[in-house]
Write a structure and sequence with these properties.
Elements: E1 4-9, H1 13-19, E2 43-45, H2 49-58, E3 65-70, E4 79-80, E5 86-88, E6 97-99, H3 105-108, H4 114-119, H5 122-133, H6 136-140
Length: 141
């Protein structure tokens, strides 16, 4: 089995933890490329860390992102889209997902431990990232 990743707005963290990755639930935040509706009937997956970091850097969601490691999917189950990126043509249950904070810049910079990052709620993550950016008024309110 391949080591696969999915990059999503941190706004979606609670939904992903509850329901997994399901393109029919898209709507709380735009996709990483900025789309407001699914581009395919499936879940886009990154084939390696480099591809995941490409999408972390692309981030058109307007806020912080999470990187999810995905297990239990073989390379041959992926469909290559016209862009050259791949998607899986089914939803992915929460049991096949775990946060991969080592691929998110705040973790890679050593500012928080992996355990602390993975335990942050959406609100805590937003406050933490606002504080890192120096947005003290937003972080306090």
């Amino acid at each position: 089995m391949a080591r696969l990743y999915h990059v999503s707005s941190a706004v979606n963290r609670e939904s992903i933890l509850a329901y997994g990755l399901d393109w029919t639930r898209m709507g709380a935040a735009p996709g990483i490329a900025g789309s407001t509706s699914p581009e395919e009937s499936g879940v886009f997956l990154c084939r390696d860390e480099g591809e995941a970091l490409f999408f972390v850097d692309m981030n058109n969601t307007g806020g912080p992102v999470d990187v999810w490691q995905v297990t239990g999917i073989a390379d041959q189950e992926l469909i290559t889209w016209e862009s050259g990126f791949c998607y899986y043509p089914a939803s992915i249950p929460p049991g096949q997902l775990s946060l991969a904070p080592e691929l998110v810049p705040t973790w890679r910079a050593g500012l928080v431990s992996r355990e602390e990052f993975a335990a942050l709620s959406r609100d805590e993550l937003d406050t933490f990232l606002q504080a890192l950016r120096g947005d003290k008024d937003a972080a306090a309110g």
